[in-house]
Design brief:
alpha+beta; 13-stranded antiparallel sheet; about 900 residues
């Protein structure tokens, strides 16, 4: 009964034919080829005034290229119906179809689909007779980019005898190559709830990479609005582990933004619940993609150029970019004018706190016509991601995005930061049915977390070493991050959750022992668990520690370890075989390397030293007299102000000039109040005085007020008062300490009524009630080290070798090396991290040596403060072969998935 709810291929053709009869100005239906079994490969074109469709920027939709992935054909029909139902009443639909064209092949594998529908539901390939008793070619391995010829015709991923050997792929090739207006291509598959944007097999960021991620993120946001389901975005980690002969890469190679969309968690799910949800949530995402095709056409403004960081501090960043972006200018012709599309434009700036995030009104932080923008009120030590595009003021057509800019704000003056990575032997997973091999799971490729029939229940284990953190660290911020690399094994919708727990390391003798890990009682489970619908692939998952959890880290400092367990569901419903999530660990041949290692990012301060300084001098300064060693303030018999002065020496604070004052207050106690008949208030301020004569004091340069004024009524109730230093006043104290100067405080009386002979006596230098300056401080470097010198790059054994000279300084901790494909990295986060350590050389083994790029090397101390970067541009005329490693599965289940089984 279930399958009767799905359309047949003929049902689809009949529906489209009827729609064309009813809406001849919107829809055109044609066959672009014929399958092995004689079925037409139908292409439907939808656009306002469809006769002119080929003149507009277009989205190409292909569905059900794999026979068993029925979502493609179902979504196609429902999306066409949605457009018809909402035209012309919905202005978003009208605008999308006015400006853009939809080319749609609901089913690119009609023979295979009908065979799956009528005979063998799990059939994947087309129905080519291979001549050896086997049938079928995997059409998504039959395109011409990185095509791989194989002879195993029985394989579910057999790519055929030659690229484009199949009528289905040949038909779509002919259509694409005769329609240069196609700007976006989406290929709909199942399963995984993830976008797989295209790539060029070169392990480098491409200029369109930001466009692809944002397009997918904005589509994912539209999906989330409907069902609250979160789709991942995963471009893979080229050149390893990529499929051969994919349509996605073929389209991208022709300059078309392209992505596979893996929908749902089963190929042929329950129609009324799961398939209908998948269709409904993807319709608004498709409408968004259709509407944005024009932004990647020749009608759009040029992509902003040289988007980069000009300055960054603890709470703000200055971004800049170039206005002139015509490609011809890079060829040396400075007299070429910009196209009309770039005249009268403004810029939109988006900010997010995670990568691969949407760019919508929610995170649009600025619209400007300038070429520079300052973003303020940021959090110290935090990561931010910025995106920029240009918009035509009249047409509202938007440009492609500039490559994303990543920053990490500086730390506040009292803060330190540390990023912990587990060593290989400290990270792995333990499986219920793999207990004899659990030790081998550590430091090898990835974590399996959840439950399946092969491994049983599996837990992830990460044992962070805290020895390099000081015992007195006070944790201000803590974030644990994992990279989800594959969620295909989580097959059950709305079932189970994944969470992270802190374990007591004293309870565990062997972290590779399944029974010990399973039976451990958590000290705390972090934040919110992740429901199965919220599992994403390819987007870092962060757990930010609460105040209670940060205190737990501090408690673990004594033990020198933070032991985490990641757990998922531990049972399976009837007739289900897997609910398993896979996370990268960065180790092993097919781990992603340093970019994908789980991390614990900490921002902390230290327990401060406290000194209570007694006043070294005090004075009462009147218009006609000066009284050393006495301390009064108020008004004299003429109503003139009487000033009190108190001085302190900072010489007993650390001789180290690099200190950060975390708290300071001035404490003073009043004695007698003489002649105070009307309310008076008293202020304390810092001053720099060359002389203590009345004129100098009265006309002093005002530096900083300390705390809030107190009233005579306050003093009557509580004679001893504290005046707190704010952040600005603390900075001034630090500067006085660095310069070896004394602190001078002036106590001044104010009154709303004119008063005479109204004086307060303050306790002076004698006795236990004398004035005090109490200061809490920590020792911490403020200035960065010198920049590394003599940075050079050369090609060695197919990889770029970088060498430099580190600064010779006792506070030197290491050098930090970053690569950026588009501009010189200005901060350590502004690109791809290649190395951090004490060596004076490294190799770029993650990139493509044939592509020009920029490298920066920063020195850093234990804060860390990062130096100004040493920067170099690398390019070579020598062509280096790029080796595509073949996939090496970790177990039988993963091998079956990769083999299309």
């Amino acid at each position: 009964m279930m399958k009767k709810q799905y359309l047949s291929y003929q049902d689809t053709i009949d529906f489209l034919a009827q729609a064309m009869e009813k809406h001849p100005n919107l829809i055109r239906l044609e066959s672009i080829g014929e399958t092995h079994e004689g079925r037409p490969i139908m292409m439907v074109t939808v656009s306002q005034d469809v006769a002119y469709a080929d003149l507009k920027p277009a989205l190409l939709y292909t569905g059900t290229i794999h026979a068993r992935e029925w979502i493609g054909i179902e979504l196609a029909v429902n999306f066409v119906q949605y457009l018809l139902d909402n035209y012309p009443s919905n202005p978003d639909v009208v605008e999308a179809l006015t400006r853009n064209t939809l080319y749609m092949v609901p089913c690119l594998n009609p023979d295979g689909f009908e065979y799956s529908r009528q005979h063998f539901s799990f059939w994947r390939k087309n129905r080519r007779d291979n001549g050896d008793g086997t049938f079928g070619v995997d059409l998504n391995r039959n395109f011409g980019i990185n095509f791989k010829r194989t002879t195993n015709t029985q394989s579910n991923i057999y790519g055929g005898p030659a690229a484009f050997s199949e009528p289905e792929t040949s038909a779509i090739k002919g259509f694409v190559e005769s329609h240069s207006n196609i700007r976006i291509a989406l290929d709909y598959h199942s399963q995984g709830n993830v976008f797989f944007p295209a790539h060029k097999f070169n392990h480098e960021a491409e200029i369109e990479g930001t466009d692809l991620n944002i397009m997918c993120a904005n589509m994912a946001n539209e999906i989330y609005k409907v069902t609250k389901r979160q789709y991942g975005i995963h471009r893979g980690k080229p050149p390893a582990n990529l499929i051969h002969g994919s349509g996605r890469e073929y389209y991208y190679d022709r300059g078309i933004l392209s992505s596979v969309v893996e929908v749902g968690s089963r190929n042929i799910p329950d129609y009324l619940i799961n398939m209908s949800q998948s269709v409904d949530e993807n319709i608004p995402a498709l409408l968004y993609a259709l509407s944005t095709a024009i932004n990647y056409s020749d009608l759009a403004p040029k992509r902003p150029d040289n988007f980069t960081i000009k300055e960054v501090s603890s709470n703000q960043v200055v971004l800049s970019w170039d206005d002139i972006t015509d490609d011809r200018l890079h060829e040396g012709n400075s007299n070429v004018p910009l196209s009309n599309n770039d005249e009268g434009c403004y810029y939109q700036i988006y900010r997010s706190e995670s990568p691969k995030y949407q760019c919508t009104r929610e995170n649009l932080i600025a619209i400007t016509s300038q070429n520079e923008y300052t973003d303020k009120q940021l959090k110290s030590g935090h990561r931010y991601f910025y995106n920029l595009r240009k918009v035509n003021r009249i047409s509202r057509i938007k440009s492609p995005f500039a490559p994303e800019v990543k920053i990490k704000t500086s730390l506040e003056k009292d803060e330190f930061a540390f990023t912990l990575f587990p060593n290989p032997e400290q990270i792995g997973y333990v499986g219920e049915l793999t207990q004899a091999n659990n030790r081998e799971h550590f430091g090898y490729n990835s974590l399996f977390i959840g439950v399946n029939k092969t491994k049983g229940v599996c837990y992830g284990v990460i044992d962070f070493n805290l020895d390099r953190l000081p015992d007195d660290a006070i944790i201000k911020d803590a974030v644990f991050s994992l990279y989800p690399m594959n969620r295909v094994g989580a097959k059950i919708e709305n079932y189970g959750e994944w969470s992270v727990s802190i374990l007591n390391p004293d309870d565990i003798c062997d972290i590779t022992n399944f029974d010990e890990i399973r039976s451990a009682t958590p000290l705390q489970t972090l934040g919110n668990a992740i429901d199965s619908d919220q599992l994403t692939q390819g987007i870092w998952k962060d757990w930010r520690f609460s105040a209670l959890e940060k205190r737990l880290i501090e408690e673990q400092l004594v033990k020198g370890r933070l032991l985490l367990r990641i757990q998922g569901p531990d049972t399976l419903p009837l007739c289900n075989d897997s609910q398993m999530m896979q996370f990268d660990i960065g180790y092993g041949r097919f781990g992603g390397g340093i970019h994908y290692r789980p991390t614990l990012d900490l921002i902390y301060t230290r327990k401060p030293y406290q000194v209570a300084l007694s006043a070294t001098d005090c004075h009462t300064i009147e218009q006609e007299a000066h009284y050393p060693a006495e301390l009064r303030s108020g008004f004299d018999y003429q109503g003139e102000t009487v000033f009190g002065q108190v001085g302190f020496s900072l010489s007993c604070i650390s001789n180290n000039t690099d200190i950060a004052i975390t708290q300071a207050y001035f404490e003073i106690e009043s004695g007698s109040l003489v002649g105070v008949e009307q309310p008076m208030r008293f202020t304390v301020e810092m001053a720099e005085l060359d002389s203590l004569d009345y004129y100098s004091v009265k006309h002093r340069e005002k530096i900083e007020f300390i705390g809030y004024e107190v009233s005579s009524e306050d003093l009557a109730k509580a004679p001893r008062q504290r005046f707190m230093f704010d952040s600005s006043a603390r900075q001034y104290l630090e500067q006085l300490h660095a310069d070896g100067k004394h602190v001078t405080l002036i106590i001044r009386a104010t009154s709303a009524s004119r008063q005479r002979e109204a004086i307060i006596d303050w306790h002076g230098l004698e006795g236990e009630h004398r004035p005090q300056l109490v200061i809490d401080y920590i020792q911490r470097r403020h200035q960065a080290l010198d920049v590394p010198q003599n940075l050079e790059a050369q090609l060695q054994d197919g990889a770029v070798k970088l060498t430099w000279d580190n600064p010779d300084h006792p506070d030197f901790v290491g050098a930090y090396v970053v690569r950026n494909s588009f501009h010189p990295p200005r901060t350590p986060l502004d690109g791809v991290k290649l190395y951090a350590g004490k060596d004076s050389y490294t190799f770029d083994r993650f990139g493509n040596a044939n592509i020009p790029k920029y490298y920066s090397v920063f020195s850093y101390d234990n804060v860390p403060n990062y130096s100004v970067p040493a920067m170099i541009k690398f390019s070579t005329d020598e062509v280096t072969p790029i080796v595509c490693d073949e996939f090496e599965p970790q177990d039988e289940a993963e091998k079956r998935y990769r083999d299309g089984d």
